[in-house]
Amino acid sequence: SYVLTQPPSVSVAPGQTARITCGGNNIGSKSVHWYQQKPGQAPVLVVYDDSDRPSGIPERFSGSNSGNTATLTISRVEAGDEADYYCQVWDSSSDHPGVFGGGTKLTVL
Amino acid sequence: EVQLVESGGGLVQPGGSLRLSCAASGFTFSSYWMHWVRQAPGKGLVWVSRINSDGSSTSYADSVKGRFTISRDNAKNTLYLQMNSLRAEDTAVYYCVKSAGRTTVVYFDYWGQGTLVTVSS
Asked: Tens digit of pLDDT for each residue in B7-25?
């Protein structure tokens, strides 16, 4: 089955740029989606189809995808961005197509 | 406003059964695939199962195949997850999730608040 690999943690100072990666075999050929989850809350979709933002998500959140790595970029990081972030793809060729990365804890210093 | 409200979680002994329900509102339930996603305490998200819009097609994670059954009642705008032969490793918060995208590109645009299932003697 398809595997997505994320770093366990990323740290960044307020106002700086955070980049969270999601690795997978030829992931650039797939559409990648990103979710933010704060403690005790349900996940929230922040980027879909590699780089599109749902309504209500700040422009500071952006995504890219190429080769074997997809990246979620958060510009001008705020304290409120501290959360777990998960990437996700749909492997339609598999019997169990839903795939999440292991998650990355973003710490705002 | 889209709302997904799960119910049915609780404490169950190993080998027992539980049925989760998810009441949906704010969108045309019968037009969308639906999913269950779970999260063990302190762990990451794991996709569990999906069902297509009319209930004629389903798929499952290997870890639950043969033990869990997803179903839906479009007349009642309700999604279900029947969980049998429960194991300690099934302990998790279970989220009801609305599907978005296309058949080959699926993502999750709305999530319920989750219901906790604890499997323990």
From this structure: 999 999 999 999 999 999 9
